[in-house]
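Sat 14:20. Reprocessing the chain from the morning session after the first attempt stalled halfway. Input below, unchanged.
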Amino acid sequence: MARLNPSLQALYSRVLRRNPGEAEFHQAVHEVLESLNVVTERRPEYLRDAIIERVCEPERQIIFRVPWTDDNGEVQINRAFRVEFNSALGPYKGGLRFHPSVYLGVIKFLAFEQTFKNAVTGLPIGGAKGGSDFDPKGRSDGEIMRFCQSLMTELYRHLGEYTDVPAGDIGVGEREIGYLFGQYKRITNRYESGVLTGKGMSFGGSRVRKEATGYGVVMFTSHMLATRGMSLEGRKVAVSGAGNVALYAARKATEMGAIVIACSDSGGYVHDPDGLDLDVLFDVKETQRLRLTEYARRRGRDCEHVPGGAVWDVPCEVAIPCATENELDVQAAKKLVENGVLAVAEGANMPTTPAAIDVFEEAGVLFAPGKAANAGGVATSALEMQQNASRDSWSFEYTEDRLRAIMARVHDRCAAAAEKYGRPGDYVLGANITGFVQVADAMLAQGLI
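Finished this time. Tokens:
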């Protein structure tokens, strides 16, 4: 990791002291501060007025218990969180994650990243994140509904279309958003459709929202490749994960002429040298929610399934990590470089370790951080809020065109910032500076907040 200047190092030490044991948050803050070394030389007021320190401190952190009853009539207790990180640009906006790994440090890191990701889009939304250590796997619809209703019974008092607007994340899809929205409506006696995004099309959802993160990361990758006179046409692509983001990234990459040859789940990865059969993949993973072993079984001997293996061992030209944080480590990065990777774009939040990013930068590999590359999801959530506010519903084609324009703008803003600060092609630097400056200037204008 790069060294911080003395002022930023002192600030980072205070962050560590205030947030003990929160490794993911520490990592996210350090990455942003590295980029701000060059900014503080030109804009010393960010240090003088403690703007950077304020940006690293959440405005509000909410922790509460969620009691609920399982199908056996036994009471279960989970813990839930909502970190409302920064509202300088607009109402708090960010997803809810249901997964056993959730604790305050994970939610805080995600909310911190979300603040800059939302700012990079240029849309008027602040940053937040939330979730619970509840595990929806193996739970019945009734259990999930009762959990969601109990969670919303506490969380609703902190939400509102002009206050805080959650969406889905890992473990929270259209079903869970539906249960959460129903309970919010029941408690408040208001049909405030803009209070949650990721809703079903039957009650105020947006077309393209399900596809948006995966589509957006591929659109960003295409722009990134174009800066070197290349395209996705004919490129071999490997994707980690087989959830919503990975599936739709695979679909959009295929539509743009790429050959998606590998994807993974927690049981290993599949390698389909002639390209994944997306009809089979979507049926197995999205419709039936089965393991990739079933995909390999249906595809036969043309497809290899490697239990417990790393998808990054498969030679590819474009890598799109879409699973979870810190999944792509330094060994995987070296393997990708050795196999001739040209570009890496993060579909998940912080899936690449700092040491792995260093490997890509040293090798001249194009690298797009999640706060830029996967901003399509939250951008389309903001479009859903626009439709809800105007009581309108846009076509798939119109919404996708809006997404395409936003992702082009995100790319161009990040590229321009990197150029301005003397590091052309450094999208990590460009994204961090673009997001930070947008938030910091708003905070300066609004006084001591």
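The chain has a mean pLDDT of 96.
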